Amino acid sequence: MNVLVVNCGSSSLKYQLINSDTESVLAKGLCERIGIDGRLVYQKAGLDKEFTEAPMPTHKQAIQMVLDALVNEKTGAIKSLSEIDAVGHRLVHGGEKFSSSCVINDEVIKGVEECNDLAPLHNPANLIGVRACQELMPNVPMVGVFDTAFHQTMPATAYIYGLPYEYYEKYKVRRYGFHGTSHSFVSKRVAELVGKNYEDLKIIVCHLGNGASVSAVKNGKCVDTSMGLTPLEGLLMGTRSGDLDPSILEFICQKENLTVSEMLTVLNKKSGVEGISGVSSDFRDLTAAAESGNEKAALAIESFCYRVAKYVGAYAAAMNGVDVIAFTAGIGENDDNVRSKIMGYLGYLGIGLNEEVNKKTHGDDAMISTADSKVQAWVVPTNEELAICRETVALVK
Ligand code: ADP
């Protein structure tokens, strides 16, 4: 069957049409600047990208343009919309309500709306995409796949914050974790690659992209993860601060005369490796700057790697050991220098880095630890769209 995978943000929408039998991408692209002016990027498999500037005042119009492109006589991937059998939506926050993907109906939409508080920028935008698709494809089944669902198996010891318990009871303030679709996909895939039962392994997944998080997956279940109530906690990221002393908030607000919400913008958008380096959030730019002598860029890269290594250590402790470490997402899949630096901290676990394989691994599956390592380390490309497609098929078939 053909599944349209939709990831809808407030002003953009990414899509892929996937044939679930062959797991091949028939077409993909994105709509940008929805509500501002509008630009459609569309690419049929095997052809060049097409760019179309056209007004997209609403998400419904954006999705209509995607559907028109998919059935376009010349470059369409399908002949008619009846060839779209299901739609899989990425939904960011499912709170404690959703511990797995589900077929979208009115009750599910209501449940997601109840979690809007926890992800005010993402959930409402996701739902706009769901509603627009429902209006344009009223008879096509839709599935919601939550970023938080995979982490719902965490025990209370891992998800409770050291705050008055009533904040958890009244407001559901707790660790939720994100990138769940990726952590789930990569942990299962690495078990296959290692050739062992998923349920018998202790796996640490390092999802290192612009947003970055680590998860501990023990016997097939997530037991801890570095992101929290929001994706701001945990690792140092492209522009997010990750963990810090909460008192810094008030301290800087007073010094710089900022409101809490302005300070949160700083923590989300102007911090992380970009904030430290003053150069960029992109590791390619940081590496180039560090190589030409920029010390702050070098510090940003080192601090990033150090934090990842600290989380790996923490999760090895949390699981009383680790069998496999997997690197994924933009940095994890491509940046051999970052992987080498992180691995440099992990000798105590009995891991050796196969420098040669590590150096030449960019975006492919590969074991980058030495054959005699006690713990295996792998690079495993993530594929959240394919994971959403699989979940969708499993629920609508
Ligand atoms: P997100 O989905 O969170 O936006 P990605 O997983 O796409 O992030 O990762 C994007 C980041 O990956 C870029 O900001 C960059 O730092 C890093 N990256 C991508 N390609 C490379 C590369 N070839 N070498 C080093 N870093 C890379």
Automatic annotation (TrEMBL):
Superkingdom of origin: Bacteria
Note the InterPro entries from the entry.
Ac/propionate_kinase, Aliphatic_acid_kin_short-chain, Aliphatic_acid_kinase_CS, ATPase_NBD
Hey, what's the signal peptide range on this chain?
Answer: none
Query: Site described as Transition state stabilizer, positions?
Result: H179, R240
Gene Ontology molecular function, alphabetical: acetate kinase activity; ATP binding; magnesium ion binding
Record-level GO BP terms:
acetate metabolic process; acetyl-CoA biosynthetic process
Stated family: Belongs to the acetokinase family.
List keywords of the entry alphabetically.
ATP-binding, Cytoplasm, Kinase, Magnesium, Metal-binding, Nucleotide-binding, Transferase
**Record: residues binding Mg(2+):** N7, E384
Positions with a binding annotation for ATP: K14, H207, L208, G209, N210, G211, D282, F283, R284, G330, I331, G332, E333, N334
Q: What does this protein do?
A: Catalyzes the formation of acetyl phosphate from acetate and ATP. Can also catalyze the reverse reaction.
What the entry lists under SUPFAM superfamilies is as follows: Actin-like ATPase domain (SSF53067)
Q: Catalytic residues per the record?
A: D147 (proton donor/acceptor)
Organism, by scientific name, is Agathobacter ruminis
**Annotated substrate binding sites:** R90
Q: What compartments host this protein?
A: Cytoplasm
**Among the entry's GO cellular component annotations, what is one?**
cytoplasm
Entry EC no(s): 2.7.2.1
What this protein catalyses is:
acetate + ATP = acetyl phosphate + ADP
Q: How does it assemble?
A: Homodimer.
Database matches in NCBIfam families = ackA (TIGR00016)
According to the record, cofactor stoichiometry and binding are noted as: Mg(2+). Can also accept Mn(2+).
Gene this protein is translated from:
ackA
Q: Know the name of this protein?
A: Acetate kinase
Matching Pfam families: Acetate_kinase
